[in-house]
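C-alpha cells in:
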C-alpha cells in the first residue's frame, strides 16, 4: 500500500512538473535605442511578450545604435527594434542600391545578419524613418512644393529658403550633400543654420516658429512633431535615401526556442504605417505621454493585447 501511495505521489509530481514545464516560458531581455520611436517600439515588444506568457526583462533605452547593436551580438539582450537601412552600414554596403528598395533591403539584411551573427529579422513596419527635409505648410502651399525636385527648382529660381539641421546632416555624404547632388541644387551658408544636436524636435520647432528666418527643417520620416509643427515632408522621388523600416531583430537561438515570437510580433509591426507611427510618436513628443502608455493604448485599440 505504501509503495502504491509513493508511486502515486511521484506520478503526480512528475505530471505537475511536465505541465508546468510545458506552459512556462523563459525570460526574454528586450532592449531599444534611446530615441522616442525606439522607446515606443521597445515597449510594444515588451507588452506583447508579457501578454503571451513570457517573463520579460525590460532594458529598453539601452543606448545609441552602436551600443544596442553590440548588446544583442554579445547576448546581453535578446531582441530590439532596428532599421533595415542600417544594414548598409553594419555590413559596409553603402554603395549598393538594394537598400533603396524596402523589400530587397529587408531581405538583404536578414540574410547578412543571420549568416554573420545568427540574428533573425522579423517583419518590418511599412514606414520609412529616413532622413528628410520638411518645409512649413505655408511655404509648401505658396511655392507648390511636394517633392525635392520641386524644392530644387524653387531654390535654383532664387526662392526664399533657409534650412535648420545638425552638423552631421549637412556634412554626412549620405544626407544633405546626397540630396543636393541628386537633385541639382546647392545652398549658400546664409541659407543654413546648424543646431547643437541631432534632435529633430529642435529643427522642426525652428521652422515652425520661423526662428532666424528658418522655413525648413531636417526631419525623419516618422517624426511625431511633423504634424504638430504644421510641416510637410518633401518626397524623395529619386530614392536618394536608403529605406529605414523598423523591425524586431532577435537572437537566432532565442527564436529557435520560441518560434511563436514571430507570430506574436509580425502582425503588430505590419500594422505600423507611416501615419500611424507619426501619430504615436507625436503623443509622446508633443502631448507628453509615456512610451509605455502610448504603446499599450495602441495595442489595446487594435486588439493585439488579450
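Residues out:
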Amino acid at each position: 500500500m505504501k509503495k502504491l501511495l509513493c508511486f502515486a505521489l511521484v506520478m503526480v509530481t512528475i505530471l505537475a512538473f511536465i505541465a508546468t514545464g510545458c506552459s512556462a516560458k523563459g525570460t526574454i531581455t528586450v532592449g531599444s535605442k534611446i530615441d522616442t520611436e525606439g522607446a515606443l517600439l521597445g515597449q510594444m515588444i515588451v507588452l506583447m511578450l508579457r501578454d503571451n506568457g513570457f517573463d520579460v526583462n525590460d532594458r529598453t533605452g539601452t543606448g545609441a545604435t552602436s551600443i544596442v547593436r553590440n548588446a544583442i551580438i554579445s547576448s546581453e539582450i535578446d531582441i530590439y527594434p532596428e532599421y533595415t537601412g542600417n544594414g548598409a552600414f553594419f555590413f559596409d554596403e553603402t554603395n549598393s542600391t538594394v537598400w533603396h528598395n524596402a523589400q530587397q533591403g529587408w531581405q538583404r539584411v536578414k540574410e547578412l545578419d543571420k549568416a554573420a551573427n545568427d540574428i533573425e529579422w522579423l517583419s518590418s513596419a511599412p514606414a520609412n524613418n529616413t532622413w528628410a527635409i520638411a518645409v512649413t505648410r505655408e511655404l509648401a502651399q505658396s511655392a507648390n512644393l511636394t517633392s525635392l525636385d520641386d524644392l530644387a527648382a524653387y531654390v535654383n529660381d532664387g526662392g526664399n529658403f533657409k534650412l535648420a539641421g545638425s552638423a552631421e546632416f549637412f556634412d554626412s555624404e549620405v544626407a544633405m550633400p546626397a540630396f543636393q547632388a541628386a537633385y541639382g541644387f546647392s545652398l549658400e551658408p546664409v541659407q543654413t543654420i546648424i543646431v547643437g544636436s541631432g534632435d529633430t524636435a529642435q529643427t522642426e520647432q525652428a521652422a515652425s516658429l520661423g526662428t532666424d528666418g528658418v522655413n525648413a527643417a531636417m526631419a525623419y520620416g516618422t517624426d511625431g512633431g511633423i504634424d504638430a509643427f504644421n510641416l510637410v515632408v518633401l518626397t524623395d522621388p529619386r530614392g536618394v535615401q536608403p529605406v529605414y523600416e523598423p523591425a524586431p531583430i532577435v537572437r537566432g537561438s532565442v527564436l529557435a526556442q520560441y518560434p511563436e515570437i514571430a507570430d506574436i510580433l509580425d502582425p503588430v509591426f505590419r500594422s505600423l504605417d507611416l501615419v500611424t507611427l507619426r501619430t504615436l510618436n507625436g503623443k509622446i513628443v508633443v502631448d507628453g505621454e509615456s512610451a509605455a502608455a502610448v504603446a499599450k493604448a495602441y495595442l489595446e485599440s487594435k486588439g493585439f493585447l488579450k
